[in-house]
Specification:
single chain; alpha/beta; 9-stranded mixed β-sheet; 8-stranded parallel β-sheet; 15 helices; globular; binds N-(iminomethyl)-L-glutamic acid; binds fe (iii) ion
């Protein structure tokens, strides 16, 4: 059968291996890189990939696009974002620069609490318009699938509004969104002394989240000044009982047992892990919990300690690299920058980083059957970069290399602009 569209003559085409499970440890440094490569799309799916002459897939209806001098990867997957929120935190920037810590700003009612107020005060349309712009920026930077967390409402009405925005964006834009309910993102002052009743309230929201199909995953911020390990575990176990996938923000600021919780409840992923102990790395590796690493957050928090990615891979863990896009600890839409920091500060190889944002990220959002590699039959999601080599994409930092993006076989970004018709 002839292809609908063939993209030809890529200098390099990154083809991750999908062995039916996330890439663990040393597997992360393996991939096939095709030269003078083509990708053929049929019916919105990958039909074939190869080197040299694609004429076997061509007939008079096939659209052929020549990408000489460029490289391509499967559509990038940003598997940890806080996409939907009101306001921004630019007014706290001076405090941050003067040395006030993230938790100190939170403790005086700023930080996540300030975004909570702005989000509660925003209508559905306001949240939708704002998140749509951010999502479009992510797409322009090469992203075709995004995980999006709620968590700036804390009350049911606002949490639901955030998740409804995610659902509508998923319907309206050519990008796949995977929704995570993160009601347990912050503790307001009135619950500081005893957050347990708050956990009860969040647990009580879970059946409704399920019933309305608002989220597939449940996440919790387990850290100093937020939820402790026991509260986090109680929430994630309740979520698991209802059939949600689970994830946890763990060991971002302090190591208080979040990774152990991830291993005990069988979470799909544990996120951040900057402060993880060697012992907890072993626990995550043994329980096959994916480590979602967010180096742009460490960078933006101006911290010195990046997640010990090499130790994790040495222990046999699967890891991803993701933005954490949010108004506080990581205001960016640029996954490529996080990837470049993955090389520079997590000391990952370009191949490891590319596997992290494709096949492993697909497993982390439970979409590996559809996306994350270029195996025939998966969605025809592809990102084209104006780079002479894959190494260049990781080496030349803080610019947008993505020139074209394909989603389900359709070109949705061309010349760094959204295709609107
Ligand atoms: O992943 N750590 C908790 N949540 C976010 C920050 C959200 C915010 O500051 O608004 C994070 O870093
Ligand atoms: Fe986060």
């Amino acid at each position: 059968m002839a292809a609908d569209r063939i993209l030809t003559h890529f200098n390099e085409l990154f083809c991750p291996h999908d062995p039916g499970h996330p890439l663990y440890g040393s597997e992360m440094n393996e991939a096939t890189v095709l030269k003078d490569a083509y990708v053929a799309f049929a019916d919105g799916k990958i039909q074939a990939i190869g080197e040299g002459d694609p004429s076997a897939y061509v007939d008079e209806h096939t659209v052929i696009e020549d990408y000489s001098g460029k490289v391509a990867t499967p559509g990038l997957i940003d598997c940890h974002t806080h996409l939907v929120y009101g306001g921004n935190r630019a007014h706290e920037f001076a405090k941050k620069l003067s040395g006030m810590s993230y938790l100190d700003i939170l403790a005086e009612g700023g930080g996540i609490l300030s975004t909570l107020n702005a989000t509660r005060a925003s209508s559905f349309d306001e949240l939708y318009d704002k998140s749509r712009k951010l999502l479009e920026q992510m797409m322009i930077h090469g992203v075709t699938s995004v995980e999006a967390k709620s968590g700036y409402g804390l009350n049911w009405e606002t949490e639901r509004r955030q998740m409804e925005v995610v659902r509508k964006l998923n319907e309206d834009l050519p990008v796949d969104l995977v929704s995570t309910f993160m009601g347990a993102h912050v503790i307001p002052p009135e619950y500081k002394a005893n957050p347990d009743p708050l956990i009860d309230q969040i647990i009580a929201m879970l059946p409704q989240v399920k019933e309305e199909g608002l989220a597939e995953f449940v996440d919790v911020f387990c850290d100093d000044g937020v939820y402790n390990a026991q509260q986090s575990k109680r929430l994630l176990e309740a979520a698991k009982d209802l059939g949600f996938g689970t994830r946890i923000h763990a060991d971002e600021i302090a190591s208080i047992g979040g990774s152990a919780v991830a291993a005990e409840v069988g979470a799909v992923s544990a996120e951040h892990l900057m402060m993880i102990t060697d012992e907890d790395i072993q626990k995550l590796a043994k329980a096959h919990v994916i480590g979602n690493l967010l180096p742009a957050t460490t960078f933006s928090l101006m911290e010195d300690t990046y997640a010990p990615a090499r130790k994790m891979m040495d222990a046999g863990m699967a890891i991803t690299v993701t933005t954490d896009s949010n108004p506080g600890s990581c205001p960016t839409a640029n996954l490529q920058f996080a990837m470049q920091l993955g090389c520079l500060y997590l000391r990952m190889t370009p191949i490891e980083v590319l596997n992290a944002v494709t096949v492993n990220a697909a497993y982390s959002i439970n979409r590996a059957a559809d996306v994350g590699s270029l195996d025939p039959g998966k969605k025809a999601d592809l990102t084209v970069f104006d780079c002479p080599s894959l190494d260049y994409l990781l080496y030349y930092f803080a610019t947008n290399h993505a020139v074209a993006v394909y989603k389900n076989g359709a070109c949705v970004v061309r010349d760094r602009q959204l295709v609107t018709e």
